[in-house]
Amino acid sequence: MDIGGRFSVLRTRLLQEMGRQGARRLGVCPISDGAGATYVAANLALATARLSHLDVLLVDLALGHPTMGVQLGLSGHPDFVPYLRGDGGQASDLMMRIESEGNLNCLLPDRPTDRGAEILQDERARERIGQLVESSDCDIAIFDLSPVLRTDEGLAALPMMDAILLVADGRAGTGRDVADCQRLMADMPPLLGVVLNKAELLG
């Protein structure tokens, strides 16, 4: 099966499970640096947007090292970090629509911040994340998150999710990394699966 087919299978499996749980917010969370979660989140969003009856929102919450804009070839996008801080206008004014996929919108930072964990643990950010999902009328929101085993920024975002997909480097990661990550995620939203990126997409 080619990569596109694998992402289609992953999409369908996740949508089925999220539907059973009534979940709309999926956090795509790398275990460590270089796991490729941005690649997984972007391709999962594109695969989901191919279902024309679904509206998809893709959000880059890797505030310390945002790369989704580069992954999608987007530039000149508005910065939505002030929105998370409680400043700025409506989320709809900050969204970028992917021209090839009329039902896919993105919210992206325009620069890194070294206070990502603090921003995400502020009650204003938690309220704003909830508001943007509701106000956008999206069927599913996919969030690209920071690595859990690098800083607390990734952990800070997890309580705002309804469900989590872990991404591990299938060539360099270890079973201990996965176990350490799962321990840190105790009492967090449900884990739907682990993607072994660069090895077997549906590992």
Automatic annotation (TrEMBL):
Signal peptide: none annotated. GO terms for cellular component: plasma membrane. GO terms for molecular function: protein tyrosine kinase activity. This is Chromosome partitioning protein. It comes from Paracoccus tegillarcae.
